[in-house]
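Per reviewer request, we include the raw input and output of the structure prediction for the construct analysed in the revised manuscript.
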Amino acid sequence: MHIALAGNIGSGKTTLTGLLAKHYNWEARYEDVKENPYLNDFYEDMQRWSFNLQIYFLNSRFSQVVEIRKSGKTVIQDRTIYEDAYIFAPNLHAMGLMSTRDFENYFTLFNLMSSYVQPPDLLLYLRASVPTLVSQIQKRGRKYENNIRLDYLQRLNERYEAWIDSYTIGKKLIVEADDYDFPDNPEHIREVIDKIDAEIHGLF
């Protein structure tokens, strides 16, 4: 079974992925942040590196999904292959940070690759307001995220909402991240686990 978490930068995906993996004894697949050769450069010069970064993420996530399905295990994945294509890349294009030529090239490749993978059995979407995102980003203190602008996060949130409303290729569960403090409140994680249990029972 393939469970995936979706959500904006700083919504708490990585934290929740780890907590759920531990609770259910699932294998976790995380976003490749530390080994990503483009991330620092991207935040320094988005226009120059946007296409390179999106291609890197597309390749990375496609490989993850193929590996997850081949493994035969229950795996929880931090971020999906769909978010870059429907949220991050279109946002960069709309902001003039990715050329139309590069965006069309990217999206054609995404359409081809996504046709070879199955969607997650269950998608968890962490919905978070911009103040929550900013608070979480500041807490984790990744240097390259210091330059993220509020309007950039707000644009991403708007695209996330449009995407999740139109997501019909599999089961989805929306988690209101503003209402939860996962690392420090066991009751909050229990609430989410109860909701996931209810969804998972319908998968068998």
